[in-house]
Amino acid sequence: MAMQNESRKTSAAPQYPPAILLMGPTASGKTGIAIELARALPCEIISVDSAQVYREMDIGTAKPDAATRKAAPHHLIDVIEPDDRYSAARFRDDALTLMREITERGNIPLLVGGTMLYFKTLLEGLSELPEADPAIRMVIDTMADDRGWPALHQELARVDPETAARLAPGDAQRIQRALEVYYISERPMSAFLKKPKYVYFPYTPIKIALIPSDRGQLHIRIAERFEAMLESGLISELRRLREHYSLDPSMPSMRCVGYRQTWEYLDGRIGLARLREQGVAATRQLAKRQLTWLRSMQGLTTFDCLDEELEYTVLNHLREALKLPA
């Protein structure tokens, strides 16, 4: 059942075409609900997942299989190679292009995933940060190899204490970006983020979140799903990726939950039992961060992802919000 329903307070016809945003923590059942919605409503699915953009990373990202994608086509899956990078800015551009095309076909964009930064960027726009500089990133990576990311976090605290305060000492990707911005512009990232953003989002968002009423049950799902990934060949998948691509553990693709821990296993740093333990723990931490993002988001209609009638209640809510016949 719905636990909150702010979106029904407005009865006026929307000014812009609708877009459905289906959000939730990992293992909350987003993919299954999205497939059923796409079958029942004139929707096309856009993946909002920073890991599923990588080709050949199928098991560890819980990517929908070929049959599922044939039944309900997905966009923004298998976009780049594992040794490439994909940014929130690129996601926003790609998603808005797809949303326009889907709307022009007479369908409704259904954006589904757990990468909350992508949702935030789509809805709120981006600050005008300097573009990435591969040479400077290489210098920062070399510094990290020599001194470690905690030491670079201390360096960031010296030049941009506001940004450093909100980053963990081991958050390599964000520390790298914040230092890169400073080295390029000689201005802290926090100064850029305070500038007003231009927001272009010509849609009426219908925001839905799948939230567990019992966090313990979500943790059980997470453990079961990670075990299923191991049984499906996660270790072999990463071994094959390392053979086919010039990968290293600092790359965004290899920092994805599950792959980071499996990399350590393949390097002999941890055993299989420790891999299971660390993989589940990291996934639980991811779910915790996703739920924190969702608590800060306005205008959500939330549903209990453990509800046995979840599909029915979400579909009924959307038919009412879209003013479609039952």
What is the radius of gyration computed over CA atoms, rounded to a whole number of angstroms?
Answer: 20 Å
Could you name the CATH homologous superfamily of the largest domain? P-loop containing nucleotide triphosphate hydrolases
The helix content is: 40-55%
CATH topology of the largest domain: Rossmann fold
Tell me the quaternary state. Answer: single chain
Largest sheet: 7 strands, mixed
The order of strands across the largest sheet is 1-7-6-2-5-3-4
- Broad shape: globular
Strand content: 5-15%
Distance between the termini: 17 Å
Total strand segments: 7
Per CATH, the class of the largest domain reads Alpha Beta
Q: Uncertain regions: pLDDT < 50 for 5+ in a row?
A: 4-13
The mean pLDDT is: 92
Counted by DSSP, the helix tally is 14
If classified by CATH, what would the architecture of the largest domain be? Answer: 3-Layer(aba) Sandwich
